[in-house]
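Troubleshooting log. The previous run stalled partway through. Resubmitting the same two chains, unchanged.
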Amino acid sequence: RKEVEQDPGPFNVPEGATVAFNCTYSNSASQSFFWYRQDCRKEPKLLMSVYSSGNEDGRFTAQLNRASQYISLLIRDSKLSDSATYLCAVNNRKLIWGLGTSLAVNP
Amino acid sequence: DTGVSQDPRHKITKRGQNVTFRCDPISEHNRLYWYRQTLGQGPEFLTYFQNEAQLEKSRLLSDRFSAERPKGSFSTLEIQRTEQGDSAMYLCASSSGQLLYEQYFGPGTRLTVT
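Second attempt completed without errors. Output:
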């Protein structure tokens, strides 16, 4: 089993849709969790750090479920500009990454 | 611009040549990380430094790879006797080592070995 697993997608959604990504991790001792956004041939950019109580930033909501060892990212009212790959990362002294989930938001 | 910078942005080299990449982290960050990413994959950890000390190195990293951070500021990653399988994006990230250890990435160096 991989340390961090994501559904690779692709997810194709219309503008305005709500889309959710999940990411599971295998190491129960993992310390912190992140969602990054990566555009084609660019570096990953930190989107959200995931706090134990869940956190929200505008249209984006991240949640952590330690008991089931997964994190989630919810995007509401999706925009064309949200089209990208979304990577989850789990910190065990270094970041362990999922493969990323590709999102295409269509007009 | 106070973000992470990397140089060069692109490098094309012939198989067997040596290459060296540079990373300048965010100035107040004491942790520096190197990752490698190929198409369709997430970044793969290579090594990381806390100040000038190299604390961890991936066992996937062959002896042809070496990294330094001599004064705890910028870092270099050298690949000796490059192979076609080394073609990838090499990403550098830095972190303050506080709170959740959030890492911020530079634009990467894209290496093509011909």
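Takeaways: The mean pLDDT of chain B is 92. Chain B is about 0% helix and 50% strand.
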